[in-house]
């Protein structure tokens, strides 16, 4: 998967101009049909938006990729911002999953699953994003997070530091932590199984991605 703008026109223009590249070999991506339509709950449960992701094929190695909108999380029926709100409420406000579920209008079991997945991956998330911050931020010391209590809080602060560093690097202003995190992980920020894989996760955050709707 490759994370792209939520604006379909921007995605088509990026494909036409060759700005989207293969994460495997770096060659340009070309149009290759569409993935299946996905109904995604955004905000309140009664607001469902249907997304049909673009599919692209690498002009070099021939591998096909789903172009996932930056507002989506891989393998989730809810928008990334909704899951991020649950993680924030749990780590910063100390709300439990039932209270968060009532607030967001989601089943308690769904919210509990989000929080458990994030907590299970927290130490790896923190290490990865701190490493990317040190590598990519123009002044990592200026955005480096203060020590936090708990693995989930440390992970959230690490992603937030990375978002601040990316905003500085590309001079695009404030970048939300969830957009930066989703883009850097190709939608897999909240996918515990991906973080559990025994390989070094590499961030792929081209300047075009940040400039194409990553700011709030």
Q: Name the strands of the widest sheet in spatial order.
A: 1-6-5-2
Q: Specify Rg, calculated over alpha carbons.
A: 17 Å
Main sheet specs: 4 strands, mixed
Helix percent reads 40-55%
Mean pLDDT figure: 90
Question: Percent of residues in beta strands?
Answer: 5-15%
Contiguous helical run count? 9
Query: How many angstroms separate the termini?
Result: 23 Å
Q: Strand tally, please?
A: 6
List low-pLDDT spans. Answer: 206-216
* Global structural class: alpha+beta
Q: Could you give the order of the helices and strands?
A: EHEEEEEHHHHHHHH
How many domains in all?
A: 1
- Give the overall shape: globular
Give me a quick take on this structure.
With 216 residues, the protein is α+β, with helices and mostly antiparallel strands. The protein has helices spanning 8-17, 80-92, 97-104, 108-136, 140-143, 151-170, 177-184, 192-195, 207-211; strands spanning 2-4, 29-34, 38-41, 48-51, 54-58, 64-69.
Description:
This protein is an alpha+beta fold. It has nine helices and six strands; from the N terminus they run βαβββββαααααααα. It has one domain (2-211). It has helices spanning 8-17, 80-92, 97-104, 108-136, 140-143, 151-170, 177-184, 192-195, 207-211; strands at 2-4, 29-34, 38-41, 48-51, 54-58, 64-69. Strand 5 and strand 6 (64-69) form a beta hairpin.
């Amino acid at each position: 998967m490759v994370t792209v703008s939520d604006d379909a026109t921007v995605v088509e223009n990026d494909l036409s101009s060759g700005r989207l590249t293969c994460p495997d070999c770096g060659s340009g991506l070309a149009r290759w049909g569409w993935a299946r339509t996905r109904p995604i709950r955004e905000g309140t449960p009664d607001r469902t938006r249907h997304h049909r992701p673009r599919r692209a094929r690498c002009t070099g190695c021939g591998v096909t990729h789903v172009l996932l909108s930056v507002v989506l999380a891989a393998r989730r029926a809810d928008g990334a911002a909704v899951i991020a709100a649950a993680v924030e409420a749990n780590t910063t406000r100390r709300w439990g999953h039932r209270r968060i579920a009532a607030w967001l209008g989601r089943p308690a079991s769904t919210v509990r699953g989000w929080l458990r997945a994030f907590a299970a991956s927290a130490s790896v998330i923190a290490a990865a994003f701190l490493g990317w911050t040190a590598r990519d931020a123009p002044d990592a010391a200026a955005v480096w997070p203060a020590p936090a209590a708990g693995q989930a809080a440390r992970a959230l602060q690490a992603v937030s530091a990375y978002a601040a560093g990316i905003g500085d690097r590309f001079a695009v202003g404030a970048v939300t932590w969830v957009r930066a995190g989703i883009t850097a992980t190709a939608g897999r920020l909240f996918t515990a199984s991906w973080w559990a894989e025994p390989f070094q996760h590499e961030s792929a955050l081209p300047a075009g991605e940040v400039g194409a709707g990553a700011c709030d």
